[in-house]
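Q: Structure tokens for this one, please.
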Amino acid sequence: MKLLRLSAIGFALLLGLFTAPSRAGAQCTASGAPASCGLPGSVSMTAARVVRLQVSAGSTALTAPTPTDFDAGLNATTGPTLTVSANAAWALYLRAFTALWTATNTSPGAPARTNKPAADLKWSTASNGAFSALTTADVNLVTGSATASSATTLYFQTLYNWTLDTPGNYSLSIVLTLTSP
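A: Here is the predicted structure, written as tokens:
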């Protein structure tokens, strides 16, 4: 019988633990009609630097050169539009992925130029502005402050030489890097 009494007491204690009201961090009590009760509270969050780069086209087909372009030494192509969204100051950089263009032969007996330098592609952010030769080092393309949308169009000039630029398919990968310092 003594054993039964201890078990009953232990059961009662356990039942009390599970059914006792828990203590809330904040409480509010109201009665009557209408009853209203309000408690102050707060929320918090951390917003990191967020940047986004949208490119209107993943690749740009450069304008095929004509005899007039070879005579002039270059031709022009409008490149992609680059749109930046950022919640802080930002900078967009441009560089060539490699120092040389990739060249594929298209004419028997006239091998494509395998040593065409990346510098034969010039770039600008204005169609009638100053153009700079592309290099493998990051060059500041454009900077800005926090913005929902800042668009910049790239313009290209491709350099041609009658005696060096033989028939072929040429391509050059460029790298765009968006940072928020």
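A few notes: Helices lie at 2-19, 67-72. Confidence is low (pLDDT under 50) at residues 1-18.
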